[in-house]
Structures are given as structure tokens and as C-alpha cells.
Write a structure and sequence with these properties.
Layout: E1 2-6, H1 11-21, E2 26-30, H2 48-63, E3 67-76, H3 97-108, E4 117-127, E5 133-144, E6 160-162, H4 174-180, H5 182-201
Parallel strand pairs: 1-2, 1-3
Antiparallel strand pairs: 3-4, 4-5, 5-6
Helix pairs in contact: 4-5
């Protein structure tokens, strides 16, 4: 089992990533568990890729180990792609899911369902101490609704209905969500790239 340091401090994300990476032989160790000093990486990128790389790179410099970071969010078409990279701090305070959801509900409530197309995006970046970098992007398409349904998941999950389903991510069991989520799709891409990397090094 190889050890990888998680740049994110979001326990929900670590749990979702680890649930999937275990089968790939990757053990995710949090920054706290690894004894890394507490630093705040400023997410000032304009894309999920920029923010994901910056988080992974900055933590890798501190620990000298392979580091993985995820930058993710929801993109809603009828409001110009918002909240996008600002998903976690949409209402002004980082990680305030309740306030973020309220703001999004208010902004989409007057749009008909068919116009509320949206996608969750996850970009996972793995940075190696030798400078090698792997970038994996995953998406899941669906619609957002102006209410919260379901007690599972976190963030915008209770407002998002993936295509082909009639329930929100908030109603999915975690193991079922992990089969189709944006993060699951990003991790599938990551695994493919890891396999290709291993093949090249043989």
C-alpha cells in the first residue's frame, strides 16, 4: 500500500477519495496525520485545474512526498456557470454548505427545470517530488433543484439530480454515489494514468 498525502483538509473529500483509492493500493494520509505544518493555500486560480495543482504542489514542497489534491465544485448553466471554482465559498464563508445552498436556491428558483442543467466537476492532481504531475478530471451531468432533498452527502449534493436518476445525490447511499460521482470519474482517469506511468517505467 503506497502512502499519499492529501492536500485537502475536507474530511468528506478525503473519505470519498479513500473509498475509491483503496482498491488501487493507495493509502490516503491527511496532512494532520502526516504531521505537516498548518498552512493555508490560497485558491486564487480561475480553473479547477489551477487550484488543484497549487494545493498539491504547495503541500508536496512541505512534506517531500507524493501529494494528492482535489478541487471540485458545481457549474450551473442558467447562472453563467456559477458557482464554479467558488463553490465552497459561494456565500462568502468557506465551507458554509447551508449558506451556499441557500444562495444557489435563490438564484435558480425562477428557472424551469429543463434550464437548470448543471455538472459537478472534480479535478484531482497528484504531484511527485521529482516534478512529475498527473491531472485527472471527472464530471457528472444533471440538474439542480431549488430545494434540498436527502440527508446523505455534503455541499450541493441534496440539490443535484444526476442524469438518468430521479433522486438527488443527497438520497444516494455513499457507495452508490461513489460509482458515478465526478470524483469517482476523476479517480478512474487517475488510475488509468497511473497504470500508463507504471508501464512506461518497466
Amino acid at each position: 500500500m503506497s502512502r499519499i498525502i492529501a492536500a485537502t483538509q475536507n474530511k468528506h473529500k478525503i473519505r470519498e477519495i479513500e473509498a475509491i483509492t483503496k482498491k488501487f493500493g493507495m493509502e490516503i494520509v491527511s496532512r494532520d496525520e502526516a504531521g505537516i505544518e498548518k498552512v493555508e493555500v490560497v485558491e486564487d486560480g480561475t480553473t479547477f485545474e489551477e487550484n488543484s495543482y497549487k494545493k498539491a504542489y504547495e503541500i508536496m514542497k512541505l512534506c517531500g512526498e507524493v501529494t494528492i489534491a482535489d478541487d471540485s465544485g458545481i457549474v450551473v448553466d442558467c447562472i453563467g456557470g456559477a458557482p464554479g471554482v467558488y463553490s465552497a465559498r459561494f456565500a462568502g464563508v468557506d465551507g458554509d454548505d447551508e449558506a451556499n445552498n441557500r444562495k444557489l436556491m435563490e438564484m435558480i428558483k425562477d428557472f424551469p427545470f429543463e434550464e437548470r442543467t448543471a455538472r459537478f466537476v472534480s479535478v484531482i492532481t497528484m504531484v511527485y517530488p521529482d516534478g512529475d504531475t498527473i491531472v485527472a478530471r471527472g464530471e457528472v451531468e444533471g440538474h439542480v433543484i431549488p430545494e434540498e432533498i436527502g440527508e446523505n452527502g455534503f455541499g450541493y449534493d441534496p440539490m443535484f439530480i444526476p442524469l438518468g436518476y430521479d433522486i438527488t445525490f443527497g438520497q444516494f447511499e455513499p457507495e452508490e454515489k461513489n460509482k458515478i460521482s465526478h470524483r469517482a470519474n476523476a479517480l478512474v482517469s487517475l488510475q488509468k494514468q497511473l497504470e500508463e506511468r507504471a508501464a512506461r517505467s518497466r
